[in-house]
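As described in the Methods, two query proteins were run sequentially through the folding procedure within a single session, without resetting any intermediate state between them. The first query and its resulting structure tokens are shown here.
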Amino acid sequence: MTEEAYRLITPDGNELELPVHKGTTGPDVVDIGKLYKTQGVFTYDPGFVATGSCASDITFIDGEKGILMYRGYPVEQLAANSNFIEVCYLLLNGELPTASELEEFDTTIRTHTMLNEGMLNFFKGFRYNAHPMAMLSAVVGSMSAYYHDTTDVHNPEHRDIFAHRIVAKLPTIAAAAYKLSTGQPFMYPKNELNYTENFLQMMFSVPAEPYEIDPIQAEALDLLFILHADHEQNCSTSTVRMAGSSGANPYSAIAAGISALWGPAHGGANEAVLRMLDEIGDVSQIDKFLAKAKDKDDPFRLMGFGHRVYKNFDPRATIIREMAHKVLNSLPNNNETPMFELALRLEELALKDDYFIEKNLYPNVDFYSGIIYKALGIPTSMFTVMFALGRSVGWVSHWREMISDPNQKIARPRQLYVGAAERDYVPLEKR
């Protein structure tokens, strides 16, 4: 905090000073903590879109300039030079690891991917057609019943164990949810494989025959996980912080974040991209649907274009675009796949259309990630699960930061009450 302050003139003509807090970069924040105590009023900010809910040193976003940084490192540099496990270490610990630290962390994650066998039996209680996100949320929430020995949120060692378990075991849980929908047996993790290779084999291998991992597919998933790893105080991350602020066991906080991510306005956006492509149906229909998207009276929306945070371009989309094309080019008969042909043509036309250029409706990370997941053979119902796998380390990092903050308080937003004023109860016979 500096000596700077905003001066607020109250209705009675008095002056109130609101201190200013300065961060490393980005907008300053005005401290309104004493506004209610001194003036008896709350601020009004639906969705908390203009409210700094916490102080954090994990992720920085500048939507106007298209900047995304993890712990100060531009995501472009991490995407080009790092891998997801190293990014996990960075987000959890604040610094890039040394070679020995990375090896130790990688070994810890590789050797904790198995689930308690009772958790696999838990899956048998779900219907075969249950949505994978419903299963993911439920099973993660149940982890405290299997790993209740390390749920003391005030114990730093317990917090570390929890963090490692979430990062290590979530791919195993996600793959099991997929296997249930296919009727295939659950596949156990293999410690000799890296993070994304292990996930692919748990998803697509079967006991009856060997499974060969495609290195381009593993590379693409690793990149997507990096780009999804964190995104500041978004809906699901804020949900994790809010749930965790009560002191609830951390697994329930992560389960709450998963549930929030499921919403179509958040993590479900890449599912919406594929549904949109299905609706368009064919390249010949693109012009028709572009016209519908431009018509303000038409409810049709071009999904996967533009972003509520990034006003000019999404830095993640710039990175993933090249990988999307790399994956598609590696597929046999790619040019004969109508959906991919449609997606690439839609991308081409939207990038050239003056209307979309003027409104900054560029393809975003959801557009390209949906295409990649589809190309890898991942069903649409699993898209948001894939998002959760990458975002899990961000959730854990924010939870750890929140729970270890000495100034942390239970979340308690206020409201503008617009209901009935005080009134007397009327007996039933008189109504």
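Immediately afterward, the second query was submitted; its sequence and tokens are:
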Amino acid sequence: MKYSPSDFNQGLCQFLDASPTPYHAVASLQTLLEDKGFEQLHEADSWGQLNAGHYFVIREASIIAFTLTGDDLSNTGIRMVGAHTDSPCLKVKPKPEKVQQSLFQLGVEVYGGALLNPWFDRDLSLAGRVSYEDPQGQISQVIIDFKDPIATIPSLAIHLDREANQNRSINPQLHLPPILAQMDDGDKLDFRALLEQQCRQQHPEINIGRVLDYEMCFYDTQKAAVMGLSADFITSARLDNLLSCYVGLQSLLAADNTRSALLVCNDHEEVGSQSVSGAQGTFLQAVLQRVVDGNEAYQRMVEQSLMISADNAHAIHPNYADKHDAEHGPLLNKGPVIKTNANQRYATSSQTSALFRQLCEQNDVPVQDFVVRTDMACGSTIGPITSSHIGVKTIDIGLPTFAMHSIRELAGSQDAVMLHKVLTAYFNQK
């Protein structure tokens, strides 16, 4: 199916708005997959010999969706795309309640390498996963989303810090606890009781006894939007990397099913991927081992496979152009970016980049290059982790983005459709 940028971006914006946390992102992806007839598999069940078909598996806040054609994977390999579901945010601490100057606040931890300044003076809400005990003593989980703006982190007025625009620093412990309510003397609020109330309101069909624990994150309530005088840009929270999750999924759904294909969206990329559901965990390897018969077949399949690690790329900023290598400054709306690093912070090799470059040329999609300045440190992705852990040939690519790791990021409104075209062709390529 061919999409216009406006149609594609409308669906993207809806996905972004519905996915304030990795748990919600996975739930959104699950809904889209089930609507297209994908069957859920559970790791604790016996899968037996899987027939040709469409499947997905969920582990925590990670998801793998794949299509099997019935071909011998040890001869054909499998075309894979990888992305991640998490984004930098403020996570609520286990004992978060604070009352200072008659104001109720919640203590938070910074998750990932967040830009902190943009978090001030925003209308914030809360979402995440809650673990509860039912009346029979069984522990289960639900996801919740307050949706309404219930919190804010006010800036300190410039009158009280005349040097704020020159050298204001942020102490995360002291300056980031959001304000949620005005309190009278003697008033108390229990955060778990608040979550319990929200769970019952949002899930009236569930008999919730008491909330035991949670993973809750603050997020900006401003909706994703296409903006600019000529609708050139898309702006939203969590473009890094829900943008790639959505494009990867739509490409998998649009594929013609002539060859086996897989999308993996891992959690915890922003904090190193070292978790049960991260790229350093066993999730992808465990799934791949179950779709072939025996270790030799698995090794042969991996050797015939290819992974595209799709994350965001730093677009060259007109106000900070000196932060880029002049010959490797990607532009918005000029196509996907091949990311290369001599020290293997990206998994791209000349072999894999040649394949992707050729694929873009064959589909009339422009392609760009990014290399970090030689005198600056380079970030990384799930690409090198997956490549080394699984042993699969990998390329790191991404879409140009401004304000990466801000509470509000910016991308080109044309780029997502371009990448969708390339990834669909990649999944179809013999």
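Residues 5-87+237-428 form a domain with the Aminopeptidase fold (CATH 3.40.630.10). We note this only descriptively and draw no conclusion about the first query from it.
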